[in-house]
Amino acid sequence: MTRICLYARTAAGTEDHLASQRESLRAFCDSQPGWQVVVHHADRAGGTTLERPGLQAMLDLARHGRIDVLLVYGIDRLSRNARQLSVITEKLDACNVILRSATEPLDTGSPAGRMMRQMLAAFSERAAAGTLTDCTPRSQGKGI
Fold first, then answer.
1. How many C-beta atoms surround the C-beta of residue 43 within 10 A?
2. Residue 83's pLDDT is what?
3. 3-state class (DSSP) for residue 128
């Protein structure tokens, strides 16, 4: 049996999507043979801070060997800061906990998954800053 921790997050002061994230995560788990949800944590906080009770509780479970996989709806639900995401995933890696996303091709149990984690983190950080479209030559006024 693979022990799963579900983690959901929505920004404070925005529409609450925690229930829909939880439903999607449970449906994803149901499609995976041998997976059993052992705990669910959620936060209503911005994705650029590590000071979230649900996140800290999940990391405690990882440290104590109580979960095998952390499942998030999308990488941006875990963090919108590439450096912080790296800190979180290093902690998970040290505890032999695999990070998976229900909506993205992310599985840190493989080298390709770890590479994808870094790319998704960079896109998430740019999107949070509102600058994702600013990196094209046309948007920079070069008219190319």
1. 23
2. 84
3. helix
pLDDT of residue 4: 98
Q: Is the pLDDT of residue 106 over 70?
A: no
Note whether 25 and 6 are within 8 A (CB). yes
Least confident range from 26-40, 112-126, 128-142: namely 128-142
Helix (H) or strand (E) holding 101: strand 98-101
> Is it true that domain 2-135 has CATH number 3.40.50.1390?
yes
CA distance 141 to 30: 48
Q: Which two tokens stand for residue 129?
A: 């800053």
Kindly list the domain boundaries of the chain, sorted by start residue: 2-135
Whether pLDDT at 39 is above 80: yes
DSSP string, 59-83: HHHHHTT--SEEEESSHHHH-S-HH
Q: Which helix (H) or strand (E) holds 23?
A: helix 18-30
